[in-house]
Amino acid sequence: MSSVTPGAAAPSGALPPPSVTPRRAPGVLRTRPLVAACFLLPALALLGALVVYPIGYSLYRSFFDSSGNGFVGLDNYQEVFTDHRIRTALRNNVIWVVVAPTVATALGLVFAVLTERVRWGTAFKLVVFMPMAISMLAAGIIFRLVYEQNPDRGVANAVWVGIHDTFAAPAPYPGARPRPSGGLADGGGGAFTTTAPVRAGSAVALPLVAVKPEDVAHAKEALPARDVAGKVTGTAWMDFTRGGGGTPGKIDAGEKALAGLRVEAVKDGRTVASTTTAADGTFTLPAAADGALLRLPAANFATAYNGVDWLGPTLVTPSIIGAYIWMWAGFAMVLIAAGLASVPRELLEAARVDGANEWQVFRRVTVPLLAPVLAVVVVTLMINVLKIFDLVYIIAPGSSLDNANVLALQLYQSSFGTDVNQGVGSAIAVFLLLLVLPVVVVNVRRIRRERGERR
């Protein structure tokens, strides 16, 4: 018997020992498909019941009339593109998709970059992100009050009126008018003029009524003007005695002076002299006013500036978009800040060492490195605004609801509103799905591409 020592060569003609390949443990899906199916079945059942079936039934229902019995083909889709309310909703959705995600992402980027440079950046992020904890319903109620037309109630108009009145003084006596048969008549354009020319050396009475009590709350008592030779004098006062009594057209005890009232002397359509009433309501004009008509300009009585009609037909959509940005800028900021934390600081420092200023670093280094995160934020917000419903329905008043209309709101109105037609509502739902699908497909491709790059 021959023996082979270890390490020696095998004898000629002998077969080499067979190589043994280790067997891989089969995956769970290959060895236990039934177990995997049991785990997936509940999720697939919910997905089918809550997503697939509603989509399929909406597509089917969109080909039938309002009763659901008569087949109408593509008539419902034709109405989607011909009805003026639906076209307004489509136009507003385009505005939403273009403006809201762009502005919210830009603000989030600015907030995320700037808060990295301050100590209290975390507190600031908390404040900006806090609106995300508020429901759409609550946010809509908040901004319905913010955009209230009355400056005493609406914050937006209170600020706007305050800024306006800083640069343009309000009228001293808005709404005031002459007493009938008091020597003043309508001069056109809101101004009032005397019915007869005035004469030097003879005092003129200018009695007014309908003056708001708060406008003369701290006014002095009116005093009769003295006759001054060669000059035109007079008194402007509130010709009203509290509790009744008094003589119309004459200054009675306790009647208030109208201080700060502008008085002009007009001859042949040209202003020859002007003055302002004193604290006691008296005024004096030079001799040039002799024979002229006295005019109280409309600026004395102009209605107080009441701010901007934020929820009117013109501004209702931008106003609601502003409320949306207030809520979602914090969301964009948090995601962008998370992406900014992963940016290599060496690249930023290298750019600064090479002589780039902060704006160049931000534009040429920070933003390109954050491009994937910015794409996620923009796509997410685009999908979100295509479904916007709550804010529009709550903030927009009834008079401006058609001007602020969006597809999701029109879907609700067509399906369950006054003109119930679930065929048209289903057609709008299918159309809205078709608008969302491209955005979803782009997002899925981006995710797959990023996963491929990581592998």
UniProtKB/TrEMBL annotation:
Q: Its Gene Ontology biological processes?
A: transmembrane transport
What InterPro entries does this protein's entry cite? MetI-like (IPR000515), MetI-like_sf (IPR035906), UgpAE/MalFG_permease (IPR050809)
Recorded hits in Pfam families, A to Z, give:
BPD_transp_1 (PF00528)
Q: Which domain of life is it from?
A: Bacteria
The record's subcellular location field reads:
Cell membrane
**Listed Low complexity bias regions:** 1-13
Q: What is this protein called?
A: ABC transporter permease
Q: What is the lineage of its organism?
A: Bacteria, Bacillati, Actinomycetota, Actinomycetes, Kitasatosporales
